[in-house]
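Problem statement: downstream parser choked on a complex file, so we are re-checking the raw output for the phosphoric acid mono(formamide)ester run. The parser issue turned out to be on our end (a line-ending mismatch), but while we're here, posting the original submission so the record is complete.
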Amino acid sequence: MTATTAPVRRQLHPPPVAASPFPYNKGSLLSVQDLTLETVSHLLARASALENMDPLVRDRILLKRRVALLFYESSTRTRTSFELAAKGLGADTTLISNLSSSIEKGETLKDTGLTLRALGAEAVILRHNSSGAAWLLEEATRLPVLNAGDGMHEHPTQALLDLRTILAHVRPGIEAVEQDTLAGVTVTIVGDILHSRVARSNMLLLPRLGARVLLCGPPQFLPELATGAGPGISIERDFDAALRESQVVMMLRIQAERLAGQQIDLEQYKASYQLTGQRLAAHAPSALVMHPGPIIRGLELTAGVADGPQSVILEQVTNGVAIRMAVVERALMETSTKEGRA
Ligand code: CP
């Protein structure tokens, strides 16, 4: 059994953005690298406050503010949770999809963004198949842009909701994070690392809190050059050995839409990297099992593991709404541009 798709450019590391002027808008969230640990702590605390707030009070916070959801790729969790989050704060939302808009007629991302701004959008939540699209949209519109996943690059709100999920289990009650909050915690990310924006955002965030990140997968999904991906990050190709060291195991889907013609022997892949109940019981009987979704039952993990007692996959989904409420609120409360900052 194999999986193939059309070619795309393969790149493990995105171009560096450290010297760039981004984000222009203080409310934007383009990368987890935009966030100080103080801001991460604020977002975690604010997510809890908003989640526990009386909905009749909460839905006045962004009453009638306008939020556009611009989705060039399919999504269930991210789109729905961003929409529920914005609506839960009282904002008006509109969804623009590449399949039912003038994008189909060839309108560019820049022109679509400028059009949304002219229509009164005060923030744009963007999912796009090209790495860097959120930066381009922010530069063009100077609106707060929330990156809901750009190609193989980043998915910052996924990393934040993953962090909230991990903390709830390994550091219950802690929301003010520091450099050593996750010291002693090993998070193993398994599978198609190369194409995963979720892996990338987690690799950029978790080591800043002291977590050790192990990357596990075959060379075609985890090139050796990832060895130097950053401090606190290393490769362990032996899945069972990685599991034995893990408090958290984050499984990833094979991203068939980004395989660039690669042929995958799925039976061989499953033999080496599928998370089964037997493997989990033998090597990591108390580890948290995470997955950003969508899960492919019977491929990267078995149905028994997905539905089992160690799985927090649906908790991750639920946490997405609270985190995105905090991020959307920040987007619309922080309206000044970088140029206007002290
Ligand atoms: N985790 C995630 O991004 O899922 P969706 O593609 O369904 O939004």
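For whoever reads this later: The longest helix spans residues 313-333.
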